[in-house]
Amino acid sequence: MVFRNLRxxxxxxxxxxxxxxxxxxxxxxxxxxxxxxxxxxxxxxxGLTVWNTAAPGYGLRVAMFWFLPGMALACGYAYYLYxxxxxxxxxxxxxxxxD
Length: 99
Hints:
By secondary structure, this protein is mainly alpha-helical. The protein has 2 domains: about 1-55, no CATH class; about 55-85. About 60% of the residues lie in helices and about 5% in strands. The protein has helices spanning about 1-10, 10-35, 55-85; strands at about 35-40, 50. It has a two-stranded antiparallel ribbon. The longest helix is centred in the last third of the chain and has 28 residues, at about 55-85. The relative contact order is 0.05. The model has no long low-confidence stretch (mean pLDDT about 90).
């Protein structure tokens, strides 16, 4: 689909197709080793599983509480930066290294 969209002139479609491909590859890798996060080569009992690598309940609750405000701050800061430095510059405004 990436190449088909690129030939058709749809860069957004090619980007989304590549995103779906990468997510599919990561998902298939994750599901193929479940419940292990990091399997052990020598002894299966030494591998890290989903259950023995999870954070404590208190830490997960705090993270859930701060996720939305933290993401709002990060998105707001990104919006501010993009608005602050918006616009195109011409070749004469580009500083070279060492100037």
